[in-house]
């Protein structure tokens, strides 16, 4: 499996993909984290869906990663798009047949792909953590936010917890992406269906009937990144999100191992 | 150890109501070049995919290097394959594409440079695959197939897109590999191509094997032919009638009558045609080539 891991990284490390993905992630990261501090006094709010995050909240022990937690869902969506494209392209390019000739144990191949994805997600998580916390420190003074509690033991604990939550969320999103890629075998279909569902349909249904957001997969994964929300508890999001991901994992593994490779 | 590199018995693949391969049975001896021929859609690629574990047969069995095709992990490390044209990542260079496969199979990446040179891509290995011409892509596909130093090389239409020089290079390469003990199973719809390089042949038509064996045996068993052209193409039917009346089998295609018969009968035909006022513009006694034989055996007389 380690060979597949390194083989996958030969594909993931190509500059267009790696720089493009990280540039997009860091751009949104910088934008959202900066907004939290720069718009701190705005009556329209400074966070997700018009919420206001005040100085007293940002001054708490978990204040350094408030921006990072907010960006978690978006990082997950970026990972979903990258890995949906990566898995579906194996079918559209016809490269899957080459891979399966060199590694006929399909589950091992899939496991290798997942392990490469997890390491990619880890890198994405840590780079964005550093940038988000860095921007937070840089802007805290200007926004008159106290950082006294940020690097206490409680602060470090909050950083660790948020990092783990964002990482889990990114991995879950990426698993959904890989599964959609395998299921649909078309990058455009996999990405567009995922984005339309997560960004439009879930929000539309949620706007009409807010209680449904408690059951929507995209909302669960974003909530995991945030460590829970006022509407959905962390444990609920984790249990339900894991269930969705396990189903996706099972279905995609079954399809990947049993389906004929005829293209 | 079996003398057969590939053995297939009653291999069948059905898709809903379509039969892609129907009860195919054949063997490929070790160390030979075996041509796998048939028109487009005959089931060649489907058969190859079943041999490589990419497609599950509906029924039947097979072995590759003595291992069942239901356990491809036991033999694929010794198999190189180019299936239905070269498929690589467009944004990666040719070398990097090969390194992906080499890394996955635990093959030293130094072999990649060696193969890039072997297939005539020296100096272009660092270029992105999407910038390659069709011939270069095909060469890279052959290089990928050669990565594991295979005991069996399975190539699906390897000369597609190659210029005459490239085709000759591939022929020479396959002959060299076979002389070193590699079994080459090469599919093509170009029968003349296969006739030049193969020792054995498996002929497939509409999913069914119509012949499997030595190419010499196949051609020796075929009857000699006389190829006839007439000054007026409309007279071909009359020539066919003369030949049929004398007990010879005739097929007309591409403006020629192909008459089964010994070369001694050619002057007799010439005289009979002259007597009824037909002028022959060509009268060529010949032994059938693979293409003739294929059409004769499959009954395709278009």
Automatic annotation (TrEMBL), chain A:
Keywords: Membrane, Transmembrane, Transmembrane helix. The chain crosses the membrane at residues 16-40, 60-85, 120-139, 159-183, 190-208, 237-257. This is Unannotated protein. It comes from freshwater metagenome.
TrEMBL record, chain B:
The keyword Isomerase does not apply. Transmembrane segments: none annotated. Residues 6-231 form the ABC transporter domain. Keywords: ATP-binding, Nucleotide-binding, Transport. The keyword Hydrolase does not apply. Pfam families: ABC_tran (PF00005). GO terms for molecular function: ATP binding; ATP hydrolysis activity. PROSITE patterns: ABC_TRANSPORTER_1, ABC_TRANSPORTER_2. Belongs to the ABC transporter superfamily. This is Unannotated protein. It comes from freshwater metagenome.
């Amino acid at each position: 499996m380690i060979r597949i891991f390194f083989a996958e990284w030969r594909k993931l490390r190509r500059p267009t993909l790696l720089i493009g993905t990280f540039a997009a992630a860091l751009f949104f990261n910088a934008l959202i984290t900066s907004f939290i501090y720069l718009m701190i006094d705005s009556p329209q709010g400074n966070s997700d869906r018009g919420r206001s995050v005040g100085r007293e909240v940002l001054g708490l022990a978990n204040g350094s990663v408030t921006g990072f937690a907010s960006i978690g869902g978006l990082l997950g969506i970026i990972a979903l798009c990258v890995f949906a494209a990566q898995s579906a392209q194996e079918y559209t390019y016809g490269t899957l047949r080459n891979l399966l000739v060199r590694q006929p144990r399909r589950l091992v191949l899939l496991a290798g792909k997942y392990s490469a994805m997890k390491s990619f997600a880890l890198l994405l998580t840590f780079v964005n953590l550093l940038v988000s916390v860095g921007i937070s420190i840089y802007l805290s003074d200007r926004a008159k936010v106290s950082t006294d509690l940020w690097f206490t033991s409680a602060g470090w604990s909050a950083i660790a917890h948020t990092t783990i939550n964002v990482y889990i969320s990114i991995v879950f999103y990426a698993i959904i992406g890989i599964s959609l890629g395998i299921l649909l075998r078309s990058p455009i279909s996999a990405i567009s269906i995922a984005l339309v569902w997560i960004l439009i349909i879930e929000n539309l249904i949620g706007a009409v009937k807010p209680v449904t957001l408690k059951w929507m997969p995209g909302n669960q994964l974003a909530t995991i990144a945030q460590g829970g929300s006022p509407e959905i508890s962390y444990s609920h999001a984790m249990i339900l999100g894991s269930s969705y991901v396990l189903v996706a994992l099972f279905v995609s593994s079954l399809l990947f191992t049993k389906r004929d490779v005829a293209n | 150890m079996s003398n057969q590199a590939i053995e297939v018995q009653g291999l069948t693949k059905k898709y809903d109501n379509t039969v892609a391969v129907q009860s195919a049975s054949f063997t490929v001896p070790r160390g030979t070049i075996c041509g796998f021929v048939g028109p487009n859609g005959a089931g060649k690629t489907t058969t190859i995919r079943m041999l490589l574990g990419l497609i599950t047969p509906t029924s039947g069995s097979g072995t590759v290097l003595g291992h069942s095709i239901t356990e491809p992990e036991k033999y694929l490390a010794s198999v190189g394959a180019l299936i239905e044209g070269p498929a690589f990542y467009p944004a990666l260079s040719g070398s990097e594409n090969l390194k992906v496969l080499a890394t996955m199979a635990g093959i030293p990446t130094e072999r990649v440079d060696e193969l890039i040179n072997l297939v005539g891509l020296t100096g272009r290995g660092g270029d992105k695959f999407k910038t390659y011409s069709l011939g270069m892509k095909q060469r890279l596909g052959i290089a990928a197939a050669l990565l594991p130093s295979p005991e069996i090389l399975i190539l699906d239409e390897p000369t597609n897109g190659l210029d005459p020089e490239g085709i000759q290079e591939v022929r020479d390469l396959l002959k060299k590999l076979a002389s070193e003990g590699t079994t080459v199973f090469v599919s093509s719809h170009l029968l003349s191509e296969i006739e030049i390089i193969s020792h054995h042949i498996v002929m497939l038509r509409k999913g069914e094997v119509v012949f499997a064996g030595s190419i010499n045996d196949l051609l020796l068993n075929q009857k000699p032919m006389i190829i006839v052209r007439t000054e007026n193409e409309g007279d071909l039917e009359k020539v066919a009638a003369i030949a049929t009346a004398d007990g010879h089998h005739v097929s007309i295609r591409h403006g020629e009558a192909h008459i089964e018969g010994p070369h001694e009968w050619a002057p007799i035909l010439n005289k009979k045609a002259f007597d009824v006022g037909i002028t022959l513009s060509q009268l060529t006694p010949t032994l059938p080539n693979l293409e003739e034989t294929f059409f004769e055996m499959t009954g395709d007389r278009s």
